[in-house]
Amino acid sequence: MKKIGIMTTGGDCSGLNTAIQRIYRGATLRGWQVIGIQDGTDGLCTTPPTVIKFNEETLPIENARLAGSFLHNGRADALNFETAAERGKIEQFNKKLKDSIKELKLDALILIGGNGSLSLAWCNREIYSDIQLICIPKTIDMDIPLTDRTIGFDTAVQQLTSFCDQLMLSARSHHRWFVVQSMGRDCGQLALNAGIAVGARAILIPEIKFDIDALINHIKTITEDHGIIIVSEGISLRGHSGRPADMISRKLTKAGIVNRTAFPEHTQRVGDTTATDRILATKMADCALNAIANNETYVMTSISNCECKTISLSDFFNTGEITSDPNIPDVKTSDSYVSPNDPLLEIATNLGIYIGEQK
Ligand code: F6P
To answer: Which of these, 150, 222, 159, lies nearest to 191 by C-alpha position?
Structure first.
């Protein structure tokens, strides 16, 4: 019999609970024991480690569609990889995690995290040398290399799309535009996909340079006097500071285009998990359990052409673009972005959506 720990780290998103519930169910059917580590790595920093035992009552099926994480994702002020590195305590921190894993007598840990958590797990891999480490990628930003999909992305696109759909009705009533700022950090996937779903007239993403005068001219040529412009939070406008949507809005106003800004913020991270995200979470949970059964370690579940398989964490880390935390150079993250060959870019252009100054 194996003993498995599950941990959710980084920002929450919808679909985490589906993954947890499916792992619990699949593992129980295999005769394995499953425990949940509370609050990400915080749960391993306490003495004894803070864990919960799952059963049908603590993990009811009807809760598996709810956003957030039953296990919590950690407190901002707690000791974690970033703060430990910043305070020169990374060795003690890593030792504490390794000791807690030993104390829990785990055979395997399933870590559900974003590109930061997965990169940190790989860069500090000695912590997990006595067990099997299986990672599952989740994030609304969809900025994780080597997987076509991440848990939480589809629900976030749906949430942002619904938000914009509602605003369209108000925009029409008042003959004005809405500049909606999406999340996504420095990756434009969320803005691009929701923009296409909504039928936005312009989508600005960090990966593509835009020209503010070209954007203004484009909006002025549109016969309708209302609509949606989506700007990703990662864009910048030379010589301007503040929130990207505010910067664009001010320029539009100056050019005589009546508009308002809107900020869906963390509503993009919540919302009942879409069926697509639940299926994805289920595929990834099943793949993670198969990987444990096959004695794999240091792997990540990955979707390629709808098929879920494992890839090595080393490939994940080395394939992306490595960025260093500006305050803590030792903390490195492997990132992915919207590819210049993404078919949605050409489709957007064909449909008259301003997407920036593409070559
Ligand atoms: O990485 C997920 C994400 O939601 C980003 O899109 C966003 O920039 C960030 O997290 C927000 O983080 P916080 O909840 O800490 O403000």
So the answer is: 159
Nearest residue by C-alpha to atom 12 in ligand 1: 11
Residue 40 gets the label, from left (phi > 0), alpha (psi -120 to 50) or beta, of left
Please give the number of the atom of ligand 1 that sits closest to the Cα of 140.
Answer: 2
Ligand 1 binding pocket includes 185 (Cβ within 6 Å): yes
pLDDT (tens digit, 0 to 9) for every residue of the chain, 359 residues total? Answer: 999 999 999 999 999 999 999 999 999 999 999 999 999 999 999 999 999 998 888 888 999 999 999 999 888 788 889 889 888 999 999 999 999 999 999 999 999 999 999 999 999 999 999 999 999 999 999 999 999 999 999 999 999 999 999 999 999 999 999 999 999 999 999 999 999 999 999 999 999 999 999 999 999 999 999 999 999 999 999 999 999 999 999 999 999 999 999 999 999 999 999 999 999 999 999 999 999 999 999 999 999 999 999 999 999 999 999 999 888 888 999 999 999 999 999 999 999 999 999 76
Instruction: Say if ligand 1 is within 6 A of residue 154 CB.
Output: no
For the question of whether the overall pTM of this predicted structure is more than 0.90, the answer is yes
Mutation pick for ligand 1 pocket among 9, 143, 185 (CB with most ligand atoms within 8 Å):
185
Active site residues: 141
CA distances from 280 to 69, 118, 155, 157, 232 (A): 16, 18, 11, 15, 25
Token digits of residue 168? 């369209």
Q: Is 247 in the pocket of ligand 1 (CB under 6 A)?
A: no
Query: φ, ψ for residue 14 (rounded to 5)?
Result: -80, 140
Strand partners, 109: 5, 133
- Nearest Cα to Cα of residue 79 among 49, 113, 44: 44
Is the minimum distance from the CB of 152 to ligand 1 under 6 angstroms?
Answer: no
| Residue in this structure with the two tokens 């020169």, named with its chain if needed | 88
d(CA 270, CA 12): 8
DSSP structure string for 37-94: ETTTTHHHHSSS--EEE--TTTS-GGGTTSSS-TT----TTS--HHHHHHTT-HHHHH
